[in-house]
Amino acid sequence: MDNKIVIALGGNAIQTDDGSADAQRKAIRSTMQALKPLFDTDADIVISHGNGPQIGTMLIQQAKADSPQTPAMPLDVCGSMTQGMIGFWIETEVNRVLAEIKSPRRAGTVITRVEVDEHDPRMSNPTKPIGPFYTKEEAEQLQQANPESTYKEDAGRGYRKVVPSPLPVSILEHQLISTLVENQNIIIACGGGGIPVIKRNDTYEGVEAVIDKDFASERLAQLIDANTLMILTNVEHVYINYNEPNQEALTNVDVATLKQYAKDGKFAEGSMLPKIEAAIDFVESGEGRRAIITNLDNAYEAFKGHVGTQIEH
C-alpha cells in the first residue's frame, strides 16, 4: 500500500477570535507552515477541514440581509460556498509552502459531495444547531412559515435552527481525488464534512444537513485506500479521565482497548468521541491501516510514529 494520508484539520487550525478574512488567512498560513515537514515527504496527502464558524457567519449574514434582492441560499449551497472559500485559502498557503521548499507538487481544492441515506434514522432526528439565535417568539414564527424546519432551545442562549447530522455513505468525488493525489498533488477535499446529497432518479440532490467532518474524512480515507488517517485537534494525546486527577494519556493503543474505553464513557460526546469512532472505523476497515489523533504542532512527529495517540488494530 502506498504511503497515503488524510489529514483532518480541527477548527482551531482555521478560525481565530477574529473572524475576518485576513485573520483566517493568517491562521491558515501558520497551520500550513506547521505542516511543511509533511509536505516535504513522498506521502500522498489529502487535507480535510471543518467549516462550522464560517458557515455560521454566512447564515447570520444571510438572515440579516434576506430580501428579494439578496435572497438567502439553502444550506447545501452555503456549504459549497464555504468549501470553496476555505479551500482557496488553504491551497494558496500550501502552494506557498511548496514554493518555499522548491517542491514540484501543487495543491488544489475539490468541491466534494457526500452521499447520505435519506432513510438514515439521524435524518428524522435533527440535532445540529446552525445559524443565528432567535427568541422563542421569533422561532415560533419561523417554524410556522416553514413547518419542515425545526428550532430548539440552545443552552439557555436562545433558539436555533437544528438540522440532521447523517453518517456518510460515499464520497462522490473519491475516484477523482484519488487520481489527483496519486499524481503527487496535495488535495483539499471534504471541507466541512462535504455537501450532503441523496440519490434521486439518475442524479444527486443536496439536502439540508451537516455531516461530521471526522466521519467524512474517515470515509474518504477508506475509499482512496489511504493507510493513515490523522485527526488534528487541540490536544497532543487522547486522554481517559480527561481533566480529572487520574487523567491518563493514550499513546499506542489497539482498537479493542479503545472500544472498551468508549463503551465505558471515557470520551466526551460531541467532542472526542466522534474522533474515536472515526479512528476505530478506519483502522478496522483494512489491513495495515492506522489512525493518529494529536495536535498540529506534533503532526510530523506523530506521522513518524513518535508522539500522539497511535491507534492500530
Put the structure in a nutshell.
By secondary structure, the chain is an alpha/beta fold. The protein has helices spanning 21-34, 36-39, 52-65, 75-100, 136-145, 174-182, 213-223, 255-263, 273-284, 299-303; strands at 4-9, 44-49, 107-109, 113-116, 128-134, 150-153, 159-163, 168-171, 186-188, 195-200, 203-206, 228-233, 238-240, 248-250, 252-254, 290-295, 309-312. It is built from 10 helices and 17 strands.
What report would you give on this structure?
With 313 residues, this protein is α/β, with parallel strands linked by helices. The protein folds into three domains: 1-115 and 164-225, Carbamate kinase (3-Layer(aba) Sandwich); 125-162, no CATH class; 235-312, no CATH class. The chain has ten helices and 17 strands. The protein has helices at residues 21-34, 36-39, 52-65, 75-100, 136-145, 174-182, 213-223, 255-263, 273-284, 299-303; strands spanning 4-9, 44-49, 107-109, 113-116, 128-134, 150-153, 159-163, 168-171, 186-188, 195-200, 203-206, 228-233, 238-240, 248-250, 252-254, 290-295, 309-312. It has an eight-stranded mixed beta sheet, with helices on both faces. A four-stranded mixed beta sheet has the order 8-4-10-11. Strands 5-7-6 form a three-stranded antiparallel beta sheet. Helix 1 packs across helix 4, helix 7 (213-223) packs parallel to helix 9 and helix 8 (255-263) runs antiparallel to helix 9 (273-284). The longest helix has 26 residues, at 75-100. The radius of gyration is 20 Å and the shape is globular. The mean pLDDT is 94.
